Amino acid sequence: MSANINSVVTVFTNLFSNQGTTLLNTILIVTTIGGQSIIRKLTFTCPCAYPLNEIHSLIFMVGPSIALLIIGIMLNSTTWRLSHGCVFRHPKTRHSWKTTCYSWTEVIAQASVAPIAWLFVVFLDGGYFTCYRAAHFCMMEDAIQCKNATILAFYKTSANYDMMSDGGKYCPDCICHMGASDSAYIEAQSQIIAWGILIVYGLLAFASMCSIRMFDKYTMVQRQYVEMYKNEEKKNFDSVAKEYATKLSEANARAFFGHELWDKKDWDWVSGVPEINNPMLVRLKLIASEKAMRRYFTPLQIWNEQKGYTIPAPDINPQPMLSEMEEGNGIKNE
């Protein structure tokens, strides 16, 4: 039983590691479709006023897509690799303009999947676009709804009638209660736009993917190996970094609690917020040497430096190279 469970876990792990981006995009698309349906049914009502109907429907069409784009950019780790600390990067380690432009293009392209899905579903539904275009089919002299004197008198009693009808130019009741034929015509236009968005985006995505692969200096197998190596390198780097940080933080904590003769100032120091701009750390900078400050990130580390405790670096030795292993075994290369 446990073997079967491990096999299933392994399959899902490999699936997420190899197709992580595709699965994430699929989840975003499904969530976007479901979210649009909920928002459409629960929160959207076309207002019987011009130009409020255009502003209201336009916000519902474009607003969520912009929000999804921003969220997608923020959730991409490449965004923060490019931007974090870029102002203070050493000139020799700064990304080239070519790499920066390519990376940002890739980030935006990946983040645009959910916004495009939102726009496709919105236009395919047609409700928002119908509300947006309603005024063009609701001129006062043509709208059947405002031929009814009772309905027209009801709207004229409103203090905002001139604003709602643009000075009597549009029929307010028609905007939110369009005729079936006009509504069907606008919905058809909206659905044409929806399929146009999908086709254009699909063609652009296909052309971009083909161009990237055609101009790749690696073969397909080489590219798979490079991506595999980068993933494994990140996992191993995080693992070793966690081990190093664990041992170093443990050594600093043991040094503090081994001091035993604490006063109020000691507890105040180590209770400071671990942030470079924290006033507590600014005061400690006057005590700690500039060279030491390059290695210390928290008040506890600087407290140990001020007290004169020497915290040795954790013993994490790299694996010996092949030549060293051969020399150790008495094997000489001819």
TrEMBL record:
Keyword hit for Phosphoprotein: no
ATP-binding found in the keyword field: no
InterPro entries: CALHM (IPR029569)
Alphabetic keyword roster: Ion channel, Ion transport, Membrane, Transmembrane, Transmembrane helix, Transport
GO MF annotation, one: monoatomic cation channel activity
Transmembrane segments: 58-80, 101-124, 192-215
Similarity comment: family membership: Belongs to the CALHM family.
Name of the featured protein: Uncharacterized protein
Organism, as annotated: Mesorhabditis belari
